[in-house]
């Protein structure tokens, strides 16, 4: 495993990290959740990303039961706040009351006294930004989180928050980023670089699409995320038949370098200094090991260029926050 420093923090995070979104919130069984998480520790992964809203607390609870068997200083733990947590429509967002309530609930479920990184899962335009920033800073002042981050904020929102909270307010940005989703490259990446904020990116394998296991004209493999209704909440963000076809153009490139498709996709994602970590998901421990192997691979410029060319007609580029419209996180 390789490690990078998270923004201006003193946290060293593994370049491949494990996330718990559709998987450990109930998408797979508890024993598989444990097997995948233990596989991550075995592979040298020390960085774990979850959110209060994943399974409405279920993902945090699942990891609380597993992580308690590991020394607290052996892993870096990140969670998030924003999503709706009950039938009460007021039970969401980034108001001071909600942040104060949700951090305590997350710590209880995770069975820890602090998280290393507390992230605003989305921007809340229903609350004064000054109030949100102050409430997040209070979480740190209370010792409940060591550092702060955000996920899927626009450049304007990031700048406004830094103006209020200062240069050291945030250490991380969590956008969707992969060979197929390059939206944050143009604006969010350089802005964050200027302010010492690292990228920790989600769905670096485009939810499995970039592994090449989805084949043109064929049914989705049984037990794959796109075949399982319980696990395909955001499939349409990345899936199209054109993308499935384009990914097959990566096969000869990967063969030429002597790596697997997941390794190629993850090494491509990690090629720049903006990234601290690629947050993978895994439904099986073998996937964790296969993906962790990408940590040691660096790609030559001509290989990167060939990948870019192969996916040029399907990759999403240019600043867009279309993902904000996906139902699993939208403010209701
Ligand atoms: N901030 C946000 O708004 C946000 C949004 C989404 C996710 N996230 C974070 O990012 C994490 C990762 O997201 P993700 O799960 O979409 O990431 P991903 O790594 O792009 O996709 C993971 C899925 O791809 C399949 N897969 C992974 N490795 C494979 C391999 N070697 N061979 C074949 N299939 C493989 C598995 O699904 P199957 O085996 O079921 O097919 C796995 O669950 C989440 O857990 C969460 O922590 C954050």
Summarize the structure.
This protein is α/β, with parallel strands linked by helices and 332 residues long. It has helices at 30-42, 58-67, 96-110, 129-141, 155-165, 188-194, 235-238, 241-248, 250-257, 261-269, 285-292, 301-310, and strands at residues 3-5, 12-14, 16-19, 47-49, 76-81, 115-120, 145-150, 172-173, 198-202, 275-280.
Write up this protein.
- This protein has 332 residues and is an alpha/beta fold.
- The chain has a single domain, classed as TIM Barrel (Alpha-Beta Barrel).
- It contains 12 helices and 10 strands.
- It has helices spanning 30-42, 58-67, 96-110, 129-141, 155-165, 188-194, 235-238, 241-248, 250-257, 261-269, 285-292, 301-310, and strands spanning 3-5, 12-14, 16-19, 47-49, 76-81, 115-120, 145-150, 172-173, 198-202, 275-280.
- Strands 3-4-5-6-7-8-9-10 form an 8-stranded parallel β-barrel, surrounded by 4 helices. The protein has a two-stranded antiparallel sheet with strand order 1-2.
- Strand 3, helix 1 (30-42) and strand 4 (47-49) form a beta-alpha-beta unit.
- Helix 2 packs across helix 3 (96-110), helix 3 packs parallel to helix 4 and helix 4 crosses helix 5 (155-165).
- The protein is globular, with a radius of gyration of 19 Å.
- The N and C termini lie far apart (40 Å).
- Residues 323-332 have low confidence and may be disordered.
- The structure holds NADP nicotinamide-adenine-dinucleotide phosphate (NAP).
- Residues 19-21, 23, 49, 151-152, 174, 202-208, 211, 213, 224-225, 231, 262, 279-283, 287, 290-291, 329 line the site of NADP nicotinamide-adenine-dinucleotide phosphate.
């Amino acid at each position: 495993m390789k490690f990078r420093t998270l923004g201006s923090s003193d946290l060293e995070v593994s370049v491949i990290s494990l996330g718990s979104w559709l998987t450990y919130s109930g998408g797979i069984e508890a024993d598989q959740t444990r097997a995948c998480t233990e596989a991550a520790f075995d592979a040298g992964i020390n960085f774990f990303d979850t959110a209060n809203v994943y399974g409405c607390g279920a993902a945090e609870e699942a990891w609380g039961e597993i992580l308690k068997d590991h020394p607290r200083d052996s892993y870096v733990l990140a969670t998030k706040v924003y999503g709706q947590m009950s039938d009460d429509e007021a039970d969401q967002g980034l108001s001071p009351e909600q942040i104060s309530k949700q951090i305590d609930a997350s710590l209880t479920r995770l069975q820890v006294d602090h998280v290393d990184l507390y992230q605003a899962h989305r921007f809340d335009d229903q609350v004064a930004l000054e109030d949100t920033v102050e409430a997040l800073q209070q979480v740190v002042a209370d010792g409940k989180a060591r550092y702060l981050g955000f996920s899927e904020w626009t450049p304007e929102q990031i700048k406004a928050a830094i103006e209020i909270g200062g240069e050291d307010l945030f250490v991380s940005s969590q956008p969707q980023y992969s060979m197929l989703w390059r939206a944050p490259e143009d604006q969010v990446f350089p802005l964050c670089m200027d302010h010492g904020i690292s990228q920790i990116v989600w769905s670096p394998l485009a939810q499995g699409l970039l592994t090449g296991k989805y084949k043109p004209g064929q049914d989705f493999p049984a037990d794959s995320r796109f075949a399982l209704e319980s696990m395909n909440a955001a499939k349409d963000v990345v899936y199209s038949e054109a993308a499935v076809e384009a990914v097959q153009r990566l096969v000869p490139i990967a063969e030429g370098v002597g790596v697997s498709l997941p390794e190629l996709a993850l090494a491509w994602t990690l090629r720049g200094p903006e990234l601290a970590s690629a947050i993978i998901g895994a439904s099986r421990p073998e996937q964790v090991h296969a993906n962790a192997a990408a940590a040691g691979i660096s790609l030559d410029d001509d290989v990167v260029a060939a990948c870019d060319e192969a996916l040029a007609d399907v990759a999403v580029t240019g600043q867009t926050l279309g993902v904000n419209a996906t139902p699993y996180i939208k403010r209701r």
